[in-house]
Give the backbone structure.
Amino acid sequence: MFQKKGKNSVPSGITVAVEKGRAIQTDFSFTDSFKIGRGQGCDIQILEDVVSRVHAEVCFRDGKWWITDLDSGNGVWIDGVNIHRAPLKQGVKVELA
């Protein structure tokens, strides 16, 4: 999922699978920042009422992929914990609820 290259780490990419909820596409790969939400402008569009129009953003900083809640109505959860911003580990499940 992640690969560090030298002193200035660059992302090798991140893969995302939408496991629950209605989505036009369910499997994604990114090498740059992306947004998740219900709105048409989001890179990952999840068509559920509990998902805000622009719910969260994932970006690569300081050698890690990070997810940030963009002041969504229902929050971003990792391992049952509501987060505002957190690093993403390989294989982690994120819930937008």
Remarks:
- The beta strands are 14-17, 27-30, 34-37, 44-45, 56-61, 64-69, 76-78, 81-83, 85-87, 94-96.
- DSSP finds no helices and ten strands in the chain.
- Residues 1-8 have pLDDT under 50 and may be disordered.
- Residues 35 and 42 are 5 Å apart (CA to CA).
